[in-house]
Amino acid sequence: MELNDTILVTGSAGLVGSNLVAYLREKGFKNVAAPNRDDCDLTDRKTTAAYFAKVKPSCVFHTAGFVRGIMGNMRHQAEAWLNNTLINTHVIESCQNAGIKKIVAMGTVAMYPDPLPNNPLREEDLWQGLPHFSEYGYAMAKRGMLAQLEAFRESYGTPFALVLSTNLFGPHDRFNTETGHVIPSLVKKFYDAKQTGAKITVWGDGSAQRDFLYVKDAVRALHAIMEKAEGPVNMATGVTRRIRDVVDILAAHTGLQDRVVWDSTRPNGQIFRAYDISKLSQTDFTCGIPLEEALAKTYDWYAQNTATARH
After folding, report:
1. In the structure, what pLDDT confidence band is assigned to residue 134 with cuts at 50, 70 and 90?
2. Domains in the chain: boundaries
3. Which of 8, 49, 105, 237 has a CA 20 to 30 Å removed from the CA of 208?
4. What's the topology of domain 6-173+211-239+273-289?
């Protein structure tokens, strides 16, 4: 990307999009287009085509999507499939019509098969089975996006990378204890307990291990992927941490160590899930912010912005 290029970021109000727009502007990119839904309804083909024709982007970061966390996705399978399929179809078609240099599209590690064919998972494992039933609609829409990108590259030469993103967190996340992802859900639980004096109940025993990537590192990774990677790319730290580690860090940061209650009657989820980051490492990207610091920054951001944060 050149500093004078027009860079389009879809989903600019979301966790990744909002942080990516800020990052690009800080790096000196002068023409960053950041439409919200009022500017361009990506589920509408004509509206999307008209917006791309007006903006004429050179490069596109496609971070927009319809996602509600694991419980929300499980309860709204058809809605997740339909909305994501419409959004992705219209954006990719409009990218081709605009003659872009490249699109980097946000996928998800939920696209991987369950049970896992390998651990850590490699990009070539993607089609070795079906995704987990809980996120089937969402994950299959994202797989469909990869199929469309590959078809457009074959037919039109459209350059792309598709990011298989691990668990992201940070400022501008959706903080919801019912439908949110694990870290923003825990952040909200700790914040609420701080205000009310209540206990913090956490499912399982905390032994499950996940790869957590802070959004400020994720946006640097997306820039590196735009410049140096092609096709599907795992975007993760390459290091797993226990859910218990996350809880302990938040408890220490808030001073609520004596308020945590582990509900061992509830499931832990998949015990261990990791990702091979060889392709990402070839871009020279490395994480810069330790989990302890990133969790503290996320909690503090939410505490300062709870009235306006997404829930």
Report:
1. confident
2. 6-173+211-239+273-289
3. 105
4. Rossmann fold (3.40.50)
